[in-house]
Write a structure and sequence with these properties.
single chain; 177 residues; alpha+beta; 8-stranded antiparallel β-sheet; 3-stranded antiparallel β-sheet; disordered N terminus
């Protein structure tokens, strides 16, 4: 009898210990540590598809068997308008919500929301795959100290909507050192 209680106690301690090793949010360092973001626990870090991407994540699909979302984070140049126009051009039948401008950690952040049929092209010479009923949330962080960083989240509309709060939470986690 005592042995069963001892085994139950050991199992409880091991279970509590395992809980402390649960998935933790991932802190992302940008611009040689001048800025950072915290990625949601539910997003899986993956190897970036191309070298110009600093970080890439897969967001869980909204429904069983659905397509996951793709989140990319990278530094880039060019005007805000030119980049947003390029993003809109990646969608056939694009519907663009009015761009929002926010101040986060003292930086100007532009939030973009586009939907339509997405032309998924993983490189300048790669063929585009058309993905129906997609949505993209984008955040352009404009920083005097660290330059511009782009966060793009594309996926089926339902998947992006399912992960929208997590995306906003990551953008809001911006810190500048």
């Amino acid at each position: 009898m005592r042995r069963n209680h001892l085994l139950a106690a050991v199992a409880a301690v091991l279970t509590l210990g395992a809980a402390s090793f649960a998935a933790e949010p991932t802190k992302l360092e940008l611009s040689d540590g001048k800025m950072s973001l915290v990625a949601p626990e539910s997003w899986k870090k993956v190897e970036p598809a191309v070298r110009i991407i600093d970080y890439e994540f897969s967001a869980p699909a909204a429904e069983e068997g659905g397509d996951p979302g793709r989140i990319t984070i990278m530094g880039a140049g060019g005007s805000i308008e030119a980049n947003v126009d390029r993003w809109v051009g990646q969608f056939a039948g694009a519907v663009k919500q009015p761009m929002k401008e926010e101040k986060i950690a003292g930086q100007t952040v532009y939030i973009v929301d586009i939907s339509g049929d997405f032309r998924d092209q993983r490189g300048p010479f790669a063929p585009a795959e058309i993905k129906k009923d997609y949505r993209m949330l984008g955040a352009i962080i404009k920083s005097e100290k660290a330059g511009q960083y782009f966060i793009k989240f594309t996926g089926p509309k339902a998947t992006v909507e399912h992960n929208e709060k997590a995306f906003k939470s990551m953008v809001d986690s911006l810190e500048v050192k």
